[in-house]
Amino acid sequence: MKNRRWYDFLWIASLSYLVLGFFNILFAWLGLACFFLPLAISIATGTKGYCNRYCGRGQLFSLLGGRFGLSRKRDIPRWMKSRAFRYGFLIFFLVMFFLMLWNTYLVFAGAKSLQQAVTLLWTFRLPWQWAYHGTAFHPGVAQFAFGFYSVMLTSTVQGLITMVLFKPRSWCVYCPMGTMTQLICRAKDHFQEGLD
């Protein structure tokens, strides 16, 4: 058995995030680390170090699909590996993300009231009132949390579905953060080649 390092247990953080957001939606703000850390690491190092080593979600899928045998362990279809699908999914994901930010802005601006719901798979609105009871913060803070938790829960469900149907970490093939870090690494490589 290989020696375990601290980052081999980041799947606990990923699972804890989902549980905490179920009970108090404001914990959803912690998920911003999953957005900024991969980008920062790829910009600083020119590698996908976050994806390969620190991604708790990928570890969770490996654990559930591998050790617990919840995966069929089949190859992911070629079309899901294609650039067209990966970039198309990234664009779709970013559009949904910016729509979430727009809704947050509308609540901050007073043009819209707080929606205490989580949207699963960008379609199904799930009432989530038990997770928010008001705070000293502006309702826009909670609106962002509901929207961001929706994004994180949706991507986790997508990852679980592809984990069951294909190999455990099939989500990693088309994960928007993975695609963005790959683009950053390529841009950094081209930039360095231009300097040489």
Short description:
The chain is built from nine helices and two strands; from the N terminus they run H-H-H-H-H-H-E-E-H-H-H. By secondary structure, it is mainly alpha-helical. It is globular, with a radius of gyration of 18 Å.
Helix-strand pattern: HHHHHHEEHHH
Spatial sequence of strands, sheet with the most strands: 1-2
General shape: globular
| Helix-and-strand structural type | mainly alpha
- Tell me how many strands there are: 2
Low-confidence stretches: none
Q: Provide mean pLDDT, rounded.
A: 93
How large, in whole angstroms, is the Cα Rg?
A: 18 Å
How would you sum up the major sheet?
A: 2 strands, antiparallel
Terminal Cα span: 43 Å
Q: Helical percent range?
A: 55-70%
- In what range is the share of β-strand residues? under 5%
Give me the number of helical elements.
9
